[in-house]
Amino acid sequence: MNIDHLNRLLLEFSVILLVAVVAVRISTRSGLPSLLIYLGIGVALGQNGIGITFNNAELTQVLGYTALVVILAEGGLKTSWREVRPVMPAATVLATVGVGVSVFVTAAGAHLLVGLDWRTSMLLGAIVSSTDAAAVFSVLRMVPLPHRLTGLLEAESGFNDAPVVILVVAFATTGELDSWYVLVGTITAELAIGAAVGLAVGKLGAYGIKQVALPSSGLYPIAVMALTVLAYAGGALLHGSGFLAVYISAVILGNAKLPHGPAVRGFADGLAWIGQIGMFVLLGLLSTPETMGSAVVPALVIGAVLVFLARPLSVVLTLTPFKVPGREQALLSWAGLRGAVPIVLATIPMVSGAPMAQDVFNIVFILVVVFTLLQGPTLPWVAKRLRIGEGAMGQDLDIESAPLEKLHGHLLSVALSPTSRMSGVEVSELRLPKGAAVTLVVREGNSFVPDRTTVLRAGDELLVVTTDEVGEAAERRLRAVDEGGKLAGWLKGR
Predict the structure, then answer these.
(1) Beta strands in 388-460 (DSSP E)
(2) DSSP output for 79-130
(3) Residue 340 pLDDT more than 80?
């Protein structure tokens, strides 16, 4: 490659990114999942479109894994531990035992209805049984579901990549397949190692960042993302689940009240968008639509088994013991969104040279496109029909903490959402602990110093100065008023 090649590549990549950014706006208005638009861009650039020839499945797999690391990190950083903690046992069982149920039922459908051999059927079942983190994180944030359901779906999509990858690699090998108890043992060991690495990196990383005052706010996002990638690499090199490690470390870091939290999440959000765009465009380039005609019927049959039988059965069997209501189980069944993860996993048998690898890729590609188009846009309608999400809480109060080293304090930047119950509350009614005070209010582009009787409004941005000793108490109080109004915590004290 020389400078001329670089210039052309930069021109092409910048145009693709700009088209993809515009596509996000189109998908938001139309309800069409953006991943389908990105796949379409890749197909349009490929052999059946502009004519770019690309058939490197191994490169696609490597770049796909890289994108998944960034996407899982971004999802973990934005996952609220308060929402996830109550549903963690249910999410863990759904992401492990539920995956096993889904794999077997889908494989049985592929074998009995389509006529595939059992090994290929099990491979297909494993590939399509993982919900996609990118699809879940993006769609659910536009659907006002109760926090417990959002937390359960996000935790499941963050966890279930790990066991599925292990199963796909096992079924894609050309040698003799390991016994079922060996597979279960391998999955258990890799999950344990990945969880341990994620916990260690997340805890130590959060402690280190809090202890070291970095000279620029722009370094905090870089440090946090580097830690999540470190967790993935460390977990993978120790023969554990790197995907589980990166997600757990990101959840810990995202809930550690690190300085410049919104900046960190914004940086991760941008990287995740780039990862999604690049991954989907590459997968579209890798596809060859003229060879997919024979895969349409098998894809529709296997997809129907997955969506209407395997997924609901896995949800019922794993969540009924946790007393999840039937209406919520129905929504969780429909919200098992597929996306890039199954297509990336479909490149594993192509790289390993497994029999029928191209057929498997074609079936998975069509299945993902068709059923994402079916499930994504209809999820809000299903939630409404099930009367789930009515009156759900709005977005969490956005608080950014910047350290004031010389003053031994913190400056909290607080943004009131449109649904915040802090609207209509006077500054004095916040009842902030001694050592904390609202010093500035920014409203409709104008800033002023409030007094005790200033009434706050939705959309306001507040600057709150606190000492180190009461920083966490002040933040807890602000969140309590945001959720419960001026009388929040009155009987329980501050």
Answers:
(1) 398-404, 409-415, 436-443, 446-448
(2) --HHHHGGGHHHHHHHHHHHHHHHHHHHHHHIIIII---HHHHHHHHHHHTS
(3) no
Closest of 482, 462, 458 to residue 414, by C-alpha: 462
SS3 at position 330: helix
Q: pTM for the whole thing?
A: 0.76
DSSP structural state of residue 212: S
Short-list 242, 158, 237, CA closest to 195: 242
The long-range contacts involving 425-428, CB below 8 angstroms and separated by at least 24 positions, are 425/455, 425/456, 425/481, 425/485, 425/486, 426/452, 426/453, 426/454, 426/455, 426/456, 426/486, 427/451, 427/452, 427/453, 427/454, 427/456, 428/452, 428/453
CA 24 to chain centre: 17
Residue with tokens 């967790």: 231
353-367 burial: b if 16+ Cβ within 10 Å, else e: ebebbebbbbbbbbb
Positive or negative, the Cα torsion across 213, 217, 222, 228? positive
DSSP string, 441-461: EEETTEEE---TTPBP-TT-E
> Is pLDDT above 60 for 393?
no
Hey, is 426 helix, strand or coil? Answer: strand
Q: Rounded mean pLDDT of the chain?
A: 84
For residue 408, the one-letter residue type is H
54 versus 117: which is more confidently predicted?
Answer: 117
Q: Is 369 helix (H, G, I), strand (E, B) or coil?
A: helix
The Cα 162–Cα 96 span in angstroms is 9
- List Cα–Cα distances, 107 to 104, 225, 300, 345, 428, in angstroms: 5, 37, 14, 16, 62
Mean pLDDT value of segment 302-320: 95
Residue 254's alpha-carbon distances to 134, 206, 227, 415, in angstroms, are 17, 9, 12, 18
According to DSSP, the residues that pair with 440 across neighbouring strands are 463
Question: What is the mean pLDDT of the segment spanning 421-445?
Answer: 89
Closest CA to 474 of 440, 434, 441, 426: 434
Tell me which of 47 and 384 has the higher pLDDT.
384
Tokens at 143, concatenated: 């659907």
Amino acid (1-letter code) at residue 76: G
- How far is Cα of residue 394 from the mean position of the Cα atoms in its chain? 19
